[in-house]
Amino acid sequence: MAVSRSADVPAEVDVVVVGAGFSGLYLLYRLRELGLRAVAFDEAGDVGGTWYWNRYPGARCDVPTTDYAYSFDPELERDWTWSEKYATQPEILAYLRHVADRYDLRRDIRFGTRITAAAWDEPARRWRLRTADGDELSCRYYVMASGCLSLPKAPDIEGAGRYRGEVYLTGRWPHEGVDFGGKRVAVVGTGSSGIQSIPLIASQAASLTVFQRTPNFSIPARNGPPSPERLAALATDRAGYREAARWSRGGVPSELTDVSGLTAPEEVRRQRFEDAWRSGELFGILGVFSDQAVNLASNDLVAEMIREKIRGVVGDADVADALCPKDYPFGTKRPCLDTSYFETFNLPHVRLVDLRGTPIASVTEAGIDTTTESFEFDAIVFATGFDAMTGPLVSVDVTGADGVTLERKWEHGPVTYLGLMTTGFPNFFMVTGPQSPSVLSNMVVSIEQHVDWIADCLRRMRAENLDRIEPTALAEAGWVRHNQDCADITLYPRANSWYMGANVPGKPRVFLPYVGGVDAYRRACDEVTEKGFLGFRLDGPAGPRCNDGVIRRVQPDVAMVLDLMASLGLPPMETMSATDARAFMEVIDAGRPPGPEVGEIIDAALPGPAGYLAYRLYRPPSRGPHPLIAYFHGGGWVLGSQDSDDPFCRDLCVRTGSVVVSVNYRHAPEDRFPAAVDDAFAAVCWIAANATELGGIPGQLTVAGWSAGGNLAAIICQRARDAGGPDISSQLLLHPVTDCDLGRPSYSSNGEGFVLTAALMRWFWDHYADGPDRADPTASPLRGTLAGLPPAVVVTAEFDPLRDEGDAYAEALAAAGVPVRHIRARGHVHTSLVMVDVVISGAPVRAEIAGALAGLRQAPARR
Ligand code: N01
């Protein structure tokens, strides 16, 4: 078939790039440096990307210009001086034009040209592309550098096409500008575009009516000259500053705080907030407290202080109230930087229409009708946002190796490896694609990182005689799961935001960007390369190769705990005496969050075989009686006490609605095996006998424990069965020690680096029991008879040395006919679930445990 082609569209190139904004320009520069033949296409008439289209009044960046600039060439940096802290759209566009000129990039860009279709040709190992003009060309590698917020959302308002007056879309603003002088103007939408443009439109228009569906958090930008501190830091050590940005959480060098909103004194909270407010920087206000992105109570402190500021500015109390965001946590929708936004609503010719109270019924020929009022306008501005992140990618008809389109593959949400590639679409790259930090970071830093990664990948492939790359299904699924894990520990999924795809009717609700941070993300990408392109399948003249695997398997907050512990360089506990180890644990426990409030806590003692045993009772806030849980703490039979698992016991009490009685027992090496077992059995007998007095429901007794406490709980259930009582209705074994064989595979794979080490377990066993005793079923319950035991919930953690013996116990119970709910805590370590309010990803597992226990309680009686 003959192929027509415009003179300036080449038939074949090495790389096609879509987009000539920050991403496309830098990519062209790098590809040219590699000696690859590359051509870029952009629908726009010039370079600039988002800064080409978004010319509405007030359009500026919201990351300081000192940071919102390329860093790849120190000469370029020296060449350019920004006039303001937050530059206007014309200045940023001028910068990008300067970059294009400086590196002579325009000769490889085809403007006014849209790529409409792309299909992978497997036999040729090339992409075949088509432009809107019908031109066709092919390339080895196809890169979408098309931006995250480049496709304006189609107006989804009834009657939108009917209006006869002037209509403007902030994302497609006329180049000649708009004169609103003397006009009655409407702005629909109060996101960043609305908030930036409203004050300037108000300054021209005869009247301005703002239609607000959701109020937005915004802080004053305090624009002016670039920050002298940042300029000084750059002047002193430019390279060091840029490197710090690359390894920062958001792509701007900033100090992370460890001040929790929950525990900081009021004056510290206020001071930190006011400092952030004064800074006029998004990363400042997003980082007032260490826990504001993950803890609702901490978040609400910041949100309320912002609401106070709004009420302090807006004169009319009702208008102020309508402008205060209340139904989503601060930061979960992109907050804004403004110049006199809230003040604008004090002007007599500006009116706010709160669409929550009176929604738009339809756009009419003359204006807008709400459910209660008809408005007439000379101009309507739609600041209604974008089909973010995935929209620009699926707007091209991309067909992969197996004939499936990208749109079809992503019908339930984007599926990518590192936000860079997607399985089934070989040699297809995305710059700042979904599931990369992109919009949650300083875009320029993330763009440079992606472009560098892609360029380095192509360089290595050429050097190794490879020409085809595609992620594996395993690696991709692992990355998608990791993204979801990261989002799940934050408050982000609680908002109907464009981050969640919630602004576009019918779009799947999944969290789109990677929230783990620029630093963590960069580390993951670097590791993938260092491990020989882990998770990628490569092929070419050199032959196929694949090092398959998943780059991040540990839960993200657990990984942070592990990193922190590694950085502290704590002495291994097995090098200490038992006394020193106990003192050490007490110090560590003193600094932890307290756990949830319970109805009542009582400290008392019960009679044991060798004296009184201290216990702590936790009662739920609800009216009793309640089911009872006899609980035994962890600590390798050496450490701990009745209150050492305090936050976990509170959580267990609240989640299960049970009275939890946490009983201490004698510890080794002072009292070795079987002292702990004897104490635990006596305690369970006493609790069962005193169930009513303790506020329990007789006959509803769970015996529970974590780690060595799980070992005791399992053994007590066996002993109670053999002794004919007490009657135990269920057992909860959390990461239990069930056997003295330390040779199981999880002892090697998880023996180091996951808090509980194999060496420490050896130390515990050595303190607790002699060789022959260890094999006794009253030390190693896996070796006992398991038939006839109470129904069990057994919890094991993926990265626990004790995982395999816990799994073995669950399997053996099931094989013996005992009803078992086996919960496998994916990505967790031995201590994850007891680190309440530290390891947030442990909460859903604890909820699952509570649900499983409730299920056992509802199950028909065993006999
Ligand atoms: O879009 P948005 P944007 N009826 O989606 C409302 C970046 N950016 O263009 O929230 C009535 O945030 C919608 O209401 P709701 C920045 O990352 C940066 O302002 O869906 N209202 C919302 O109020 C930003 O986050 C800068 O209930 C409707 C508004 O329209 C992102 O781009 C400047 C509606 C849309 O807000 C997008 O910002 C500008 C309907 N049918 C943008 N549909 C900088 O400062 C939508 N809305 C660098």
Walk me through this protein's architecture.
The chain is an alpha/beta fold and 863 residues long. The chain is 34% helix and 18% strand. It is built from 28 helices and 29 strands. The strands form 6 sheets. Strands 1, 2, 3, 4, 5, 6, 17 and 18 form an 8-stranded mixed β-sheet that branches. It is globular. 3-acetylpyridine adenine dinucleotide binds at residues 60-62, 149, 156-157, 170, 188-194, 196, 213-214, 334, 355, 360, 383-386, 439, 498, 503.
Task: Give a summary of the structure in a few sentences.
The protein is of the alpha/beta class and 863 residues long.
**Rg, alpha carbons:** 31 Å
Number of strand segments: 29
Largest sheet: 8 strands, mixed
Provide the list of bound ligands, each named once.
Answer: 3-acetylpyridine adenine dinucleotide
Helix/strand-derived category reads alpha/beta
Helix content range? 25-40%
- Uncertain ranges: none
Distance between the termini: 79 Å
Shape label: globular
What integer is the average pLDDT?
96
Strand content: 15-25%
The DSSP helix count reads: 28
Question: Main attributes?
Answer:
863 residues, eight-stranded mixed sheet, alpha/beta, binds 3-acetylpyridine adenine dinucleotide, single chain
